[in-house]
Design a protein that fits this description.
Largest sheet of chain A: none
Helix content of chain A: 55-70%
Distance between the termini of chain A: 28 Å
Largest sheet of chain B: 3 strands, antiparallel
Shape of chain A: elongated
Strand content of chain B: 15-25%
Oligomer: heterodimer
Number of strands of chain B: 7
Helix content of chain B: 25-40%
Low-confidence stretches of chain B: 1-9
Mean pLDDT of chain A: 72
Structural class of chain B: alpha+beta
Radius of gyration of chain B: 18 Å
Order of helices and strands of chain B: HHEEEEEEE
């Protein structure tokens, strides 16, 4: 009789991954916010209209106003929301091959070590 | 609705950079993207890795029920039974008559589906629009 190994997953396991992901998102947001917070406004540079339009689709007017006012909490919230939305997009809308390909490219952009090997997950 | 095709490869970093551009902290988007890579490259890598793990787990492995990520889109009405206000209140107005709108989701939740029945295994943490408006004189830290 031929037996196939099956990777069964429990609700607790998935919950654990989600909890870890939330922690990682908070950590990423904190790292980005910490650096941003030390920067003075660039003289003569205003928030660009195209950026405003794109961000407005994601956050709404109240959030935009708080970010433009350099409200540290609002900036941190916006970064976390963006990362959460990214996770939502990856886990809900794409085919697996597309997901791996897109992530590989994203990863290579921020990596100093070169290509991110996701073949094992395809 | 989620996108039916993969976003542009640089979307996540680009979107983060645009937030920082609104603060007028960088002269251009490429500088903001470089800053994000330097300050949080490792952390963003970790988020991507964990996202792959979650995607792999809920799509490829066998579970006793269907599970999916639960993220509340901006503009939805706050519902205490299925969401948590990150600032700890119940989402009603000062007069307690109306529910507030969600500005965005801060922490991912998890939905379980058995047949046609959905159950929230983990409530997402959300920020309410009303909490983004600070009282007079407190807009600067």
């Amino acid at each position: 009789m031929f037996l196939t190994k099956v990777d069964a997953v429990s609700e607790a396991e998935v919950l654990g991954i989600v909890e870890n992901l939330n922690t990682l998102i908070s950590s990423a947001s904190g790292a980005i916010s910490g650096t941003w917070d030390q920067r003075e406004p660039v003289p003569g540079t205003l928030a660009e209209e195209p950026d405003m339009v794109k961000i407005r689709d994601d956050f709404g007017t109240a959030m935009i106003e708080q970010i433009a006012a350099r409200n540290y909490v609002a900036v941190t919230l916006a970064i976390e929301m963006t990362l959460v939305q990214f996770v939502k997009q990856v886990t809900s809308g794409w085919g697996r091959g597309d997901t791996a390909g897109a992530l590989r490219k994203i990863y290579s952009m921020i990596s100093t070590e070169g290509e991110f090997d996701v073949r094992a997950r395809q | 609705m989620p996108p039916q095709e993969p976003p542009r490869s640089e979307e996540i970093i680009d979107n983060l950079a645009r937030i920082l551009m609104i603060t007028r902290s960088f002269a251009d988007t490429s500088e903001a993207m470089e800053s994000i890579g330097n300050s949080a490259g490792i952390e963003v890598k970790a988020v991507i890795g964990a996202t792959l793990q979650l995607d792999d787990t809920i799509k490829a492995k066998i579970a006793s029920s269907d599970m999916s990520v639960y993220v509340v889109p901006p503009g939805e009405t706050f519902i205490e039974e299925t969401m948590t206000n990150v600032f700890g209140e119940d989402g009603t107005t000062e007069r307690g008559e109306e529910r507030s709108s969600v500005a965005g989701t801060m922490e991912i939740g998890l939905l379980q589906k058995i047949g046609n029945v959905e159950k929230v295994l983990r409530k997402p943490k959300v920020v309410l629009e009303r909490d983004l408006v600070e009282p007079e004189g407190e807009s600067e830290r």
